[in-house]
UniProtKB/TrEMBL annotation:
Predominant cellular place of this UniProt entry's protein: cytoplasm
The keyword Metal-binding is annotated on this UniProt entry: yes
Catalytic reactions of this protein: (6R)-5,10-methylene-5,6,7,8-tetrahydrofolate + 3-methyl-2-oxobutanoate + H2O = 2-dehydropantoate + (6S)-5,6,7,8-tetrahydrofolate
The protein's name: 3-methyl-2-oxobutanoate hydroxymethyltransferase
Cofactor(s) annotated in UniProt: Mg(2+)
Amino acid sequence: MSMQAQKKSITTTEILRKKNKEKITMLTAYDALFSKIFDGEVDMLLVGDSLNMSFFGESDTLSATLEQMIYHTRAVCNGAKTSLVVCDMPFGSTISPQIALESAMRIFKETKAQAVKIEGGAEIKDTIKLLVQNGIAVVGHIGLKPQLVRLEGGYKVKGKQERELESLLQDAKALESAGVFCFVLEGVCAEVAKQISQSVQIPVIGIGSGASVDGQVLVWSDAFGFFEEFKPKFVRHYLQGAKMVREAMQAYIKDVKNGEFPSASESY
């Protein structure tokens, strides 16, 4: 039976309880159409600022605005009634604790998102504490941080050096003590990711960080084969989506050209 038969929405408490008990699943979603398909199947839906790349066609996430994130989160919440919806806080919306609080308050007031996600480690613990104290559930994000792509000169795997392990462990502990209920760990060597997951009592959601964490997240257009420019090492294609849509489109074009569509039964 499909999980969509369940009416009760997944809560942050339920996500916390899955630590060391059940792997957590998460996909991105940017609209009501796909969030309705994914709803109740995956535990969490992330309205990622990745939409700036996969949905809008930009080369990175940095130009995504708070207004765009709110718009897409509202759409996702219209389609999702069971999965826990998380809204990414875009670049520039968390530059001070007060600005982050104002941004998160807007997200909570203008959408039905149950949590926000913030990139950063120990350096933003005060921001996270302020949000949590004001009733905002927070998902953390450490390791490879896409919003720092220009600063770091590209997307670089973390945890290859001993000092990076210590820094990541400090970040993980800081996020936990600040009050996040889980965090995304991106682009971290698998053995290091395992140590990080074992060092905290909250779930760690991996992307490109091996299997020894508490769950996984993928961008939906990567997982289902709609993004064709390149395939990251950590992505598995569960569908050849672009190929299938292209073939269906070509069949539609052929039927129109040949006068086979619409048929009599498809006409008024």
